[in-house]
């Protein structure tokens, strides 16, 4: 039953999550983040066998679970406004490639009140594929809010299905540049380590044995006294993958305070976000075939940081 507060669900705990923490179980059952699941429990929106549980309580198979889920994010509306700085790199009847500025997410999500790529394009009159959830129409991959660079979106239904499959099958060549603290050893290498939600449940991700397979290839382009400019080739596309893998080898992205970057370095370089830019996309065009490739230049704040390091 759907109410003004959300969607009410009642069901027994499945056998497959016997013994898990309640917040982890709810996250798995309803496709939520563990942080959001913990918030539902704390707000009294979860009952286990008729009682209000704690987020760390262990669930037993067959126990009765009552959950009031939050309403889904509202679909983009016609009143959305164009997003300043969101530039169109290429557009045809099937795809549109954009250069995303910082402070913009791909699509509306619960809790995000800032601009989105999706709403910005719709407000500019771009017609996108309607496949998938209404709040994610046309979206075939994402960038973090404060990661800049290239994104491709599907305009036709055929393009949507072909591009989704291409990203899933890892046939899209995604290249990023990132500035990391110190110098990786070796200067060229691969980080092959599974990524999952951080055990703290605070919204971060981490290298964990129970995570999903994640592979990041890196190559040093330029070494400075206290930092290195790397080119990254992603074999997989996990949330925060580059940021997590660089932090895991002791070389966090400059400015990425969430994953352990030194704030004194980012302050000296004038960086208020992670130095990470999606600079190249190469893939087979979803309808007419043939390889297409797009490149993006660094935005001014990233350029200034590199120039400062060169002067040093």
From TrEMBL:
Gene3D superfamilies: Pseudouridine synthase (3.30.2350.10), RNA-binding S4 domain (3.10.290.10). It is an enzyme of class 5 (isomerase). The keyword Isomerase applies. InterPro entries: PsdUridine_synth_cat_dom_sf, PsdUridine_synth_RluA-like_CS, PsdUridine_synth_RluC/D, PsdUridine_synth_RsuA/RluA, RluA_PseudoU_synthase, S4_RNA-bd_sf. Keywords: Isomerase, RNA-binding. It comes from the Bacteria. Its EC number is 5.4.99.-. Residues 94-248 form the Pseudouridine synthase RsuA/RluA-like domain. Pfam families: PseudoU_synth_2 (PF00849). It catalyses: a uridine in RNA = a pseudouridine in RNA. The keyword Isomerase applies. GO terms for molecular function: catalytic activity, acting on RNA; pseudouridine synthase activity; RNA binding. Responsible for synthesis of pseudouridine from uracil. Belongs to the pseudouridine synthase RluA family. This is Pseudouridine synthase.
């Amino acid at each position: 039953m759907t109410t003004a507060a959300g969607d009410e669900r009642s069901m027994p705990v499945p056998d497959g999550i016997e013994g898990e923490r309640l917040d982890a179980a709810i996250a798995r059952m309803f496709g939520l983040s563990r942080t959001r699941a913990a918030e539902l429990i704390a707000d009294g929106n979860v009952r286990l066998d008729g009682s209000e549980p704690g987020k760390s309580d262990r669930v037993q198979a067959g126990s009765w679970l009552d959950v009031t889920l939050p309403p889904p994010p509202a679909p983009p509306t016609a009143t959305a406004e164009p997003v300043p700085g969101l530039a169109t790199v290429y557009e045809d009847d099937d795809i549109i490639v954009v250069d995303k500025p910082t402070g913009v997410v791909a699509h509306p999500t619960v809790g995000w009140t800032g601009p989105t790529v999706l709403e910005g394009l719709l407000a500019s009159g771009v017609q996108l594929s309607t496949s998938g959830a209404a709040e994610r129409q046309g979206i075939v991959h994402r960038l973090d809010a404060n990661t800049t660079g290239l994104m491709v979106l599907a305009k036709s239904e055929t393009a949507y299905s072909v591009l989704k499959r291409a990203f899933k099958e890892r046939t899209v060549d995604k290249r990023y540049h990132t500035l990391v603290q110190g110098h990786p050893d070796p200067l060229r290498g691969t980080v092959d380590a599974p990524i999952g939600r951080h055990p703290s449940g605070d919204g971060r991700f981490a290298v964990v044995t129970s995570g999903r397979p994640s592979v990041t290839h890196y190559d040093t382009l330029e070494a400075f006294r206290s930092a290195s400019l790397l080119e990254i080739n992603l074999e997989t596309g996990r949330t925060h993958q580059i940021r997590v893998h660089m932090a895991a080898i002791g070389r966090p992205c400059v400015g990425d305070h969430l994953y352990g970057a030194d704030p004194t370095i980012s302050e000296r370089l004038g960086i208020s976000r992670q130095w990470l830019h999606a600079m190249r996309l190469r893939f087979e065009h979803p309808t007419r075939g043939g390889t297409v490739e797009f490149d993006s230049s660094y935005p001014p704040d990233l350029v200034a940081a590199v120039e400062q390091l060169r002067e040093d």
